[in-house]
Amino acid sequence: MSEKLLQQMLDYKAIVELKARFVHTVDNKDWDGYRAVFTPDDGLFDFGGGFTVIGGNAFVEAVAGQLADAVSVHRAFLPQIAFTSETEATGEWAVNDYIEFSADPETGERRGQQGFGYEYESYRKVDGIWKISAWRVHYVRVDPLPRMPLPDSILGGPDVLRDEAYLAAVTSRPV
After folding, report:
1. How confident is the model over 13-30, as pLDDT tens digits?
2. Contact between residue 78 and residue 93 where contact means Cβ atoms under 8 Å apart
3. How far is CA 13 from the centre of its chain?
């Protein structure tokens, strides 16, 4: 195996681990750890829908503000990483996320979404460590959460899922 191929395999692994830190730190609200996965400079971070920020630090502040009182679960998988030089790469990840905000104070209804799509990233190796230098998300599908909390377990087994009154209580589907 050539030295170049071995280094590229090690770099691939480092980028996959970087993405794992991206996901773990945001869901655990470890904002210092989250900040450490980004270059702090002038990369573009695009949330979609016209909302963008410039630089990793601004991105972390925006995400921390959005998720301060939320429960989030992010998953990233099926990486496609391409090296453009020894110190730069791009990546595309299939993603899904679950974000639940505090219940609406007036109605008590759940608020949040589950999204499915892709994240596109640029990476730069800084002092031997890979960092995310730009990021963009594209959702293919976004589903609102059912308005009522789901029970911890479904009493009555699968048959309860055919009960129209139950379904109306836990989803926005009319009876």
Report:
1. 999 999 999 999 999 999
2. yes
3. 19
Q: Are 53 and 62 in contact (CB under 8 A)?
A: yes
* C-alpha–C-alpha distance, residues 79 and 77, integer Å: 6
* Surface-to-core class of residue 77, CB atoms within 10 Å of its CB (0-12 exposed, 13-18 middle, 19+ buried): exposed
| Structure token digits, residue 10 | 């090690």
| Residue 45, both tokens | 């971070």
Could you read off the pLDDT tens digit of each residue along the chain, which spans 175 residues?
Answer: 899 999 999 999 999 999 999 999 999 999 999 999 999 888 899 988 888 999 999 999 999 999 999 999 999 999 999 999 999 999 999 999 999 998 888 877 889 999 999 999 999 999 999 999 999 999 999 999 987 765 555 555 666 666 777 767 766 555 4
Residue 24, both tokens? 């773990």
Domains in the chain, please, with CATH?
A: 3-144 (3.10.450.50), 147-175 (no CATH)
**Residues with Cβ within 8 Å of residue 41, at least 6 apart in sequence:** 55, 56, 133
